[in-house]
């Protein structure tokens, strides 16, 4: 019954999002027509200009949707999960970029045809002679930078801190786009209804960002007074941080979820990093386990006891609530084992049929393995530590391939699978699960990678 309720909540949230997007899309087109754009279609070169204005409005609507998707609204986040919302945010960002670029091209071409002037000459005239168009051009340029650095091929080569700083420029894109609409947009200049609509839309989206990304975390920090209790080395490049505070039993955190942690210490206070809980919350303390992958994560090792912690969250739908079957398979790769270890602690309390696969390249990378062994022994779960390079071949074919998984895990198609690890491993294992006929609804993932 719990799993059915979870599915229903997820489906309802998706339905409401799509319905609101469709409703706003129709409303934007109505405002476009009410603003007199229908008459422009019959004039000379009016079609190109009208399409240019319509793509601009579509880009603005998609930009507002991006804000909502990443505002960390609890109602959405609990039902859809940060992983899915982030994926939709990234997909919507592609549409924002193409719609805005189409808007620029169509407007310039349309006016060039209308004025019978060269396209480049018309572009220069619009840029330097039209009110506030330089600001809009700056916003477009910044949007291109944000979009380019969000491409996976580029993003994987960047330090998290650099990427995150550049991505914050998206807020400036929103502001510059809004100012562009206010100054010369027909919906603002000539339509009181349109003006009220866009003010409400932008205000609601930015208000959600302000409340849920800034004010709520500040309130929770003041309420719980979270501080570092201990920093425990797990390996030469991995440490566990124990965090305590007041009334942590009232924090709605579950095993499998993550927070964005900002440690108020030298070299760490400027950035917030996403780390999963590596132990089931007990109402008294929280624990994360961090591997040194960049400057920020490496500095965590030097935290002092008593350091204040600003934590935003919890986030993620990678929890035991997603279970649909009596049997469970937990798969963790590398340091992605942290939420798997927490899930094992919780799920083993109510589930008697649990298998854990821990995938590492080398035995030295198997952090928390002693804890996994103890938890598995206590709960009667089966633990397999799979060691070897990505190209390794075992008696049953490629490691973590379909035959290997089928040999290690009996009744795999009838289990829920919780999977967390690096993107390459996650994609490969999902492919193997599909080859074995495991339904998608039974595969629950958490990407152990950059989060927005």
Per-chain topology:
Layout: H1 2-40, H2 46-69, H3 74-80, H4 82-115, H5 119-129, H6 133-150, H7 152-155, H8 160-167, H9 169-184, H10 186-189, H11 192-224, E1 227-235, E2 238-244, E3 258-263, E4 273-276, E5 285-291, H12 295-299, E6 309-315, E7 327-333, H13 337-347, E8 353-360, H14 369-379, E9 382-387, E10 393-394, E11 397-398, H15 402-408, E12 415-421, H16 423-435, E13 443-447
Parallel strand pairs: 7-8, 7-12, 8-9, 12-13
Antiparallel strand pairs: 1-2, 2-5, 3-4, 3-6, 10-11
Helix pairs in contact: 1-2, 1-3, 2-4, 2-11, 3-4, 4-5, 4-6, 6-9
Shape: elongated
Number of helices: 16
Seen as an oligomer or otherwise, the chain set is single chain
Percentage of residues in DSSP E strands = 15-25%
Main sheet: which strands, in order across?
A: 9-8-7-12-13
